[in-house]
Write a structure and sequence with these properties.
Blueprint (H helix, E strand, L loop, with lengths): L1 H14 L9 E5 L4 E5 L4 E9 L2 E12 L2 E9 L5 H18 L7 E6 L5 E13 L4 E12 L2 E9 L5 H10 L1 E2 L1
Antiparallel strand pairs: 1-2, 2-10, 3-4, 4-5, 5-9, 6-7, 7-8, 8-9
Length: about 180
């Protein structure tokens, strides 16, 4: 599943070369319970994944700008089990780092709720070589779980992006 998600994101990086500007727009995803600003018109994808021997659905919305992929992946859990939520968070965190050959160094963060307040999450920045061509990538990600959803807000780029663009993306990410 993680390789599939990373593959979609890496493919998106290749396609991103056609998108020269940031054209921020707020995307509200009522079905999955979040809102976020994306730098271009979003594309959607959905697939079944297997995490720890359990089938789950993963949905993705992504947009491409300035050689980067901005994406929100949502894993739909079969039930509201705190242990399962944590297992999926751990799986995503370690898998992203493993794909780049980096240590899964995560820091605590707070992810805001649209109605006010926030929920605990983790954020990490990793760099390394990815894909069949072993191209250098930088990944910045926030992982958070709420109810029957585990969210992965991710930026994948060939190089560091302007901080204001990174901030626009992550600061706009709010859960319902």
């Amino acid at each position: 599943m993680l390789r599939t998600a990373a593959g979609v994101a890496v493919l998106g990086c290749t396609l991103a070369a056609c998108s020269p500007d940031y054209d921020w727009r707020t995307v509200t995803n009522n079905a999955d319970g979040y809102t976020i600003d994306l730098p271009a018109k979003p594309m959607s994808d959905e697939r079944d994944v297997d995490i720890g021997g359990r089938p789950m659905k993963m949905k993705m919305q992504s947009a491409h700008a300035e050689g980067a992929v901005f994406a929100v992946g949502t894993v739909i859990l079969p039930d509201d089990d705190p242990q399962l939520r944590q297992s999926v968070l751990d799986y995503l965190r370690t898998g992203l780092a493993r794909n780049l050959g980096a240590a899964p160094d995560a820091r605590a963060t707070q992810v805001p709720l649209a109605a006010g307040g926030d929920v605990p999450g983790v954020e990490m920045s990793v760099s390394g070589d990815a894909g069949e061509k072993r191209e250098h990538k930088t990944i910045e990600v926030r992982l958070v779980a709420r109810g029957r959803h585990v969210y992965q807000a991710t930026i994948i780029a060939d190089k560091a992006l302007p901080q204001e663009q990174v901030d626009q993306f992550f600061q706009s990410f709010k859960l319902y």
